[in-house]
Every structure is written in structure tokens, then in C-alpha cells.
């Protein structure tokens, strides 16, 4: 990493400075050599720490880890990042940070100190805090006064990272603590149901009028998942002479891209902006469809004016409307559902598919934490299926460098009974629903892969 930066006459971005997406030093982080180095450094640093630390202390500290999540939620909810942005690099004391939300300054300092100890925020002098590279990514981009005066709208128009952090730390955080209870007392309820005292699944629950704030926070959060990925992740590129994504440009003029469970349509809008010859059908439940119309109007009105985008309220557990699909796109959908329900969704798509329709799933594919038995794998012949593993003594999956895969897996479980699948897991649900997995593309710098399937 140092070699690449020295060669380019730059330094890697500093942990003490706010994140700046336009900084050329950020772009250099996406170079294949740097990506490889970062993965090794993160895996090695965590493994060295686990090796040398007192083991009891590691276990007990891990049992307290929920405080990191809840303090991050509190800091974001109380718009601390924006107050600190306005204060500048010298920072501001906890009394001033706590004043707009009228909370105890001593407690505010303790919350921020715990986070600063985990490299989120900086305590520049006793009781005085400033943003750093990590905290600044939660900036919602508005003056703090505006955020405090209009709570309902505080997340709209932001990058979505704060919304993602708040949604996860809030709803998954409250649910996750019930994991063990639901295993010890199996009643078929998932942790979310126990935490929120509801029999509804999270998506119907979010549609309720009392959850208007939560449903729009979730929609913005989905956009935030893209902000945590390289911008061109959705497009095809080349890495080590392999294609890294599905080639949307090969689809014919007026071809129809059906974004199933598309949310606000962030992904299909990004594709349509680059390939405006594609028609888009954005499907979702009622509330996200309304948000989607507004999102397209603000961000790509030309496609609306040309009548190249349609918004369908559609429940994907019911038969598909007639759309003449060239591609069904499902991003972050199958991971929400256990296998039996995932297969219901896939079978409805299969029934509506034309012979040449492609299915593109954009999902995380979870490796094992052990070395994989490639010979025994049902997927070994699929182009793009195999992935490199780390060199010993690192964990084969690069341990901490891929932790997000396993964290999201449990978030899917506690919220929905869902699962981040292994490649075999995808192969199984697809094959049982009438789809053949043709190819897999792994996207460098991203935990997401493109799985491309055709009707059997
Ligand atoms: C994890 S989000 C993914 C959104 C979008 N594909 C993206 O990547 O930003 C799951 C989406 O599925 C939608 N959804 C949940 N249940 C649904 C159903 N039964 N029919 C249609 N959409 C549904 C949710 O409203 C939500 O927008």
C-alpha cells in the first residue's frame, strides 16, 4: 500500500481528517494492489490482536460490544456529526454538543469517548470532540439547525449512510438481543417479533402509518448500502482480465429491466442513467413505490418524461404482472427470506420469464471460515464461482476483513429469518425454482456479487 501511494506522490487518507470522496487518495484505495493490501492488513491486524490479547478480556469486551452500536446510534440520532462539522477541526466541548438536544453533557462526553476509543470521532482535548474520517461518513449534509427543526425529514437527500447505521443499530440492535431467547424457547418467532411485540413481518410492519419515519429511513438506508460500495459496482469492468459485473449495455434498445423489490429504485436509476435505452419497471410495496416516484422525479426526470419508467405496486409472493422482461433484477431481496419463501419469489419470476430472460441477483456470497472443499462443490464448473483464499496463517476468508458478510447474515436472521447464502445455497434455491446459475461476477472492492441465471 505504501509503495503504491509513494509511487503516486500521495499519502493514504488520514484517520484524523474528515472523509472526502473527491480526494484522489480515496480513488487510489480502489486499485487492485491496494485493495489486496488492505484486505491483508485488516485481517492480519485483527488476528494479531486476537492472538496477543488476554482471552478473557476479549470475550468479556465482546459481550459489551452492543454499546458501540447503541452509542453510534445516539450520536447519529442527536446530529453530533453535523454539529462537529460546523465546529471544524478544533472541535467543540460536550456541553455545546449536548445543548441542541438538551441531553446531559457528561453522558454525551462518555458516549463520544467510547466511540473515540474505537476510532470513531476524536477527543482532541479533555471533553472536546471533533469528527474524524469514520464519523464524518455519517454527515447528512444539512445544517444542524435544519436537522433539529425537522426531524421527520432529517435523512432525506443524504448519502444514506447515517440512515443505514441508524436503521441497523436501532431495529436490528433491539432485535438481536433476543437471539438466544428465540433459540432456547423455539416458538417459530424470530427475534424482531419478540423485540417489537408484533406477529407481523418487518415489511408489513413498516407499512403501518405509525412507522412512516421508519419506512422512509429504511428506503434511504438502502441507498446508503450503495454509498458503502464502489460507485461503478453495478457496471461491468475488468480486473485481472476477468469481467467484474453484468453487462447491462448488451441489453437491446427498449429492453425491459424489472427491478423486483426495487425500493426507491436507486439501482435501476443508476443503470438507466448510463443506459437510457432501457425501460425500467420498478416494483415494490405501496409506501416504497411512492418514495420511488419522488426519487426518480428528483434524480432522472427525463426517463419519466419519456415514459421509460413505470412504478408497479406488486407483492413478489404473488404472480408477476405481464412485463415482457429482458432482465429481472433483484438486489438485496433473496437474503431477506428463508429458502422456502425465496423459492416462492423465484418461481413467480420463472413463470413470467421469456425464454431469453435473464435473472440477475446482486447479493453477498458468504465463504466458509475454513478452507473450502472445491472438489465437492456443486458449483465448481460455474464461470466465476471460485474465489481466492487468504494465505496461512490468516483465516482463509480474511477474517475481520470480511466480517460484514457474517454481520449482515445475522442481521437478516434477527429481522426477517433471512440468510446471506453460500454459493451452494444460491445454487440450490435457484435450481429448485427453475433457474440455472450460469455465471458469477465478483466485484472488486465490494462484498457484492452478481449471480446471473437463465430459465431451465
Ligand atoms: C433490502 S430492500 C432492497 C431494496 C432495493 N432492491 C435495493 O437494493 O435498494 C428489500 C425491498 O423489498 C421490498 N419488499 C418486501 N416485501 C415485499 C413484497 N412482498 N413484495 C414486493 N416488495 C417487497 C421492501 O419494501 C424493500 O424495498
UniProtKB/TrEMBL annotation:
Transmembrane segments: none
The O-methyltransferase dimerisation domain, residue ranges: 62-138
UniProt protein name: S-adenosyl-L-methionine-dependent methyltransferase
Domain (O-methyltransferase C-terminal): residue spans on this chain: 178-372
Region spans: Disordered: 1-20
Top-rank lineage group of the source organism: Eukaryota
SUPFAM superfamilies xrefs: S-adenosyl-L-methionine-dependent methyltransferases, Winged helix' DNA-binding domain
UniProt keyword annotation of S-adenosyl-L-methionine present: yes
UniProt record, GO biological process: methylation
Keywords, comma-separated and alphabetical: Methyltransferase, S-adenosyl-L-methionine, Transferase
The keyword Transferase belongs to this UniProt entry's keyword annotation: yes
GO molecular-function term, one example from the UniProt record: protein dimerization activity
Organism this protein belongs to: Mycena venus
Amino acid at each position: 500500500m505504501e509503495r503504491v501511494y509513494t509511487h503516486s506522490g500521495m499519502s493514504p487518507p488520514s484517520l484524523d481528517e474528515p472523509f472526502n470522496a473527491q480526494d484522489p487518495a480515496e480513488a487510489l484505495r480502489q486499485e487492485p494492489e491496494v485493495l489486496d493490501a488492505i484486505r491483508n492488513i485488516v485481517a492480519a491486524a485483527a488476528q494479531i490482536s486476537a492472538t496477543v490479547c488476554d482471552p478473557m478480556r476479549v470475550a468479556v469486551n465482546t459481550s459489551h460490544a452492543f454499546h458501540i452500536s447503541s452509542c453510534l446510534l445516539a450520536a447519529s440520532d442527536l446530529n453530533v456529526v453535523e454539529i462537529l462539522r460546523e465546529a471544524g477541526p478544533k472541535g467543540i466541548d460536550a456541553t455545546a454538543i449536548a445543548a441542541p438536544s438538551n441531553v446531559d453533557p457528561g453522558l454525551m462526553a462518555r458516549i463520544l469517548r467510547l466511540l473515540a476509543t474505537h476510532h470513531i470521532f476524536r477527543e482532541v482535548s479533555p471533553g472536546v470532540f471533533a469528527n474524524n474520517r469514520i464519523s464524518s461518513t455519517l454527515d447528512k449534509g444539512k445544517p444542524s439547525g435544519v436537522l433539529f427543526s425537522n426531524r421527520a425529514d432529517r435523512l432525506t437527500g443524504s448519502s444514506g449512510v447515517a440512515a443505514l447505521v441508524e436503521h441497523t443499530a436501532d431495529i436490528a440492535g433491539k432485535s438481536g438481543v433476543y437471539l438466544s431467547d428465540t433459540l432456547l424457547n423455539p416458538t417459530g418467532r424470530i427475534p424482531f417479533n419478540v423485540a417489537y411485540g408484533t406477529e407481523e413481518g418487518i415489511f408489513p410492519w413498516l407499512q403501518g402509518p405509525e412507522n412512516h419515519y421508519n419506512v422512509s429511513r429504511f428506503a434511504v438506508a438502502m441507498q446508503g448500502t450503495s454509498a458503502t460500495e464502489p460507485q461503478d459496482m453495478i457496471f461491468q469492468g475488468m480486473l485481472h482480465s476477468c469481467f467484474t459485473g453484468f453487462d447491462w449495455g448488451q441489453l437491446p434498445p427498449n429492453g425491459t429491466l424489472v427491478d423486483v423489490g426495487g425500493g426507491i429504485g436507486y439501482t435501476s436509476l443508476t443503470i438507466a442513467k448510463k443506459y437510457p435505452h432501457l425501460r425500467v419497471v420498478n416494483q415494490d410495496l405501496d409506501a416504497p413505490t411512492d418514495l420511488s416516484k419522488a426519487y426518480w422525479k428528483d434524480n432522472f426526470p427525463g426517463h419519466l418524461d419519456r415514459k421509460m419508467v413505470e412504478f408497479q405496486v406488486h407483492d413478489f409472493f404473488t404472480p408477476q404482472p405481464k412485463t415482457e422482461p429482458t432482465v429481472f433484477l433483484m438486489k438485496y431481496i433473496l437474503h431477506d427470506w428463508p429458502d422456502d419463501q425465496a423459492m416462492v419469489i423465484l418461481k413467480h419470476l420463472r413463470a413470467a420469464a421469456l425464454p431469453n430472460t435473464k435473472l440477475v441477483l446482486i447479493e453477498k456470497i458468504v465463504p466458509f471460515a475454513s478452507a473450502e472443499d472445491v472438489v465437492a462443490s456443486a458449483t465448481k464448473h460455474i464461470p466465476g464461482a471460485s474465489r481466492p483464499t487468504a494465505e496461512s496463517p490468516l483465516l482463509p476468508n480474511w477474517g475481520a476483513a470480511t466480517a460484514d458478510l457474517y454481520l449482515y447474515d445475522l442481521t437478516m436472521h434477527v429481522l426477517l429469518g433471512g440468510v446471506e447464502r453460500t454459493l451452494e445455497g444460491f445454487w440450490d434455491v435457484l435450481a429448485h425454482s427453475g433457474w440455472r446459475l450460469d455465471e458469477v461476477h465478483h466485484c472488486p472492492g465490494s462484498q457484492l456479487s452478481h449471480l446471473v441465471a437463465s430459465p431451465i
